[in-house]
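Posting this for the archive.
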Amino acid sequence: MLLAVLSAILIFNGYQVIDNMTLYCGLLRGQDPSETAGYQKAVLYTFKVSMGVTMGWVLTRAAPRTAVLGSACVGLSAVLFALVAPASVFLLSFGLLGAGQLHGVYITNYILSCAPRRLMRRYMAFTMITMLPAAPAGVVYGLISGTMGALYEDKSLGYQVSLATSAGLIALGIGLSLLLPPRPKAASE
């Protein structure tokens, strides 16, 4: 369970880069970021629905770790895609990130699978607390992009460094997830 929680914290921190993705999208497209916000959300939720149906089906046939790793890998691909995508297809990175955000559902399912029946509420509460350490990550990404952008007088570089930092955190979380047993067993009472 501890390994799953640490993995979740790293991945949740990585996903907090979405605000920088929004600002970077506006910079790439030469528009105010608010002009594409509706499109970003439409793509994000379309992919999230598709991933939910797909991974729900996969989860009925595969080990719980499969959904944990699958959603995290899609989230990582979103950030990596945002690093290299041209403006014309950049919005797809929001879709991939939306699909990857379902990691929160699948890691919670995994952690609850580790729980003895009488401690499920406690495990669930503990799982929700894993999001707390991710709260300041958005501010950190803003500091990274602002500092690097000002230092090198290149806003794009600042956003790219924040995206690379996010990708590193998600990759570390995936690495920890690979160490999880494919099928968790409930801890003994």
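The mean pLDDT is 93. The two ends are 15 Å apart (CA to CA).
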